[in-house]
Design brief:
Layout: H1 37-46, H2 59-68, E1 72-73, E2 81-83, H3 88-91, E3 94-96, E4 102-112, E5 138-139, E6 142-143, E7 145-153, E8 168-177, H4 179-186, H5 190-200, H6 207-210, E9 215-221, H7 230-240, E10 251-255, E11 259-265, H8 271-279, E12 288-295, E13 307-314, E14 323-324
Parallel strand pairs: 4-14, 7-11
Antiparallel strand pairs: 1-13, 2-3, 4-8, 5-6, 7-8, 9-12, 10-11, 12-13
């Protein structure tokens, strides 16, 4: 769980505030197309490889390679157990999630000199390719697209200094509203009402002001048995695997014409959490991680909870994967 820390001490080099409003652009000056970071990375690699007779790779070959190296895939929401009634606060009942409101449709990964480069991503990239024909705007108070950005520091945390920004790795997940979500809005399902209230609140609201309706992250290591984690690390993973955490006050929120975005700022997590994540940076290419996101519900008329979306990420190398953003 994250903890609120003081603002940057100034040790990290400050950059003009306009960076936060500058689109992620391609070399041709156009907006970066959402979900295309793997394609850009692939083209960079293939540009140094010659096909038969020195010609370019055929389109079908490029497509097959791109699919092979894709790092994400949809998964069954029932893997995750969520709150259910009756009287959860007393009974603590949980059951597998029945579907989700959103489906994963794309993922990007970026290397960035500061976290501002991977903040408010939805208003910097071209999202048009993620929407089906005729889809636009919001539906019954919920956005067509839900974006989650995990801002991960690449520098070693220090217990003695308060550094909360710097070189980092940004992983961006794009989810699209599915029929389950649309039906839940129309039927005024409890979890849908809670989600609608969540996105309607001020963007700068604190977790304390939100009451019980908080953003929860769930991370599950799916291939623990394939890894030699050792007794201590293995025990730690076993204890906290797939356990929801709140990342209190370590988030920023953003809206757009058809999307809502939650940026989870791991740079501001407490020292122990950041130290553990930094120690795992060499392991990421061997991990299969299941990630899910949910808005916390509490009362019987709001339960059961429903996943916003979930995704399986495989062998994402925080050192080698991702497109490097310019200074």
């Amino acid at each position: 769980q994250g903890s609120k820390g003081p603002k940057s001490s100034g040790r990290a080099k400050r950059r003009p505030e306009t960076i936060n409003h500058t689109p992620v652009e391609s070399k041709r000056g156009k907006k970066f197309r959402a979900g295309s970071s793997r394609h850009v990375k692939l083209m960079t690699v293939l540009s140094g490889i010659q096909w038969r007779g020195g010609s370019k790779f055929p389109g079908k070959v490029e497509a097959l390679i791109a699919e092979y190296i894709r790092k994400w895939e949809p998964m069954d929401p029932a893997v995750f157990k969520l709150r259910c009634g009756p009287n959860y606060r007393v009974n603590g009942f949980k059951k597998p999630s029945v579907g989700s409101f959103y489906d994963i449709v794309a993922m990007d990964s970026f290397h960035a000199p500061t976290k501002k480069h991977v903040t408010d991503v939805g208003n910097k990239v071209d999202l048009s390719s993620l929407l089906k024909e005729g889809e636009e705007g919001w539906v019954g108070g919920l956005p067509r697209l839900w974006i989650v950005v995990m801002q991960i520091p690449n520098y070693s945390p220090s217990f003695l200094t308060s550094k909360y920004d710097g070189d980092g790795f940004g992983v961006v997940f794009y989810f699209r509203l599915n029929q389950n979500g649309i039906d839940a809005i129309k039927r005024r399902v409890g979890a849908a009402r809670v989600t609608k209230k969540f996105v309607s609140q001020p963007l700068d609201i604190t977790d304390a002001a939100r009451g019980p309706y908080l953003w929860k992250n769930i991370v599950r290591l799916a291939n623990q048995e394939d890894l030699n984690l050792g007794y201590i690390v293995g025990g730690y993973v076993q204890k906290y695997n797939a356990k929801p955490f709140l990342s209190r006050n370590c988030k920023t929120y953003h809206r757009g014409p058809a999307h809502f975005e939650v940026d989870v700022d791991i740079h501001r997590f407490n020292y122990v959490s950041r130290k553990g994540m930094y120690a795992f940076r060499d392991w990421t290419k061997d991990l299969t991680l299941d990630l899910a996101f949910v808005i916390q519900c509490q009362e019987d008329d709001e339960l059961p909870e429903k996943l916003l979306g979930c995704v399986r990420v495989t062998a994402l190398d925080s050192k080698c994967d991702g497109v490097s953003l310019p200074q």
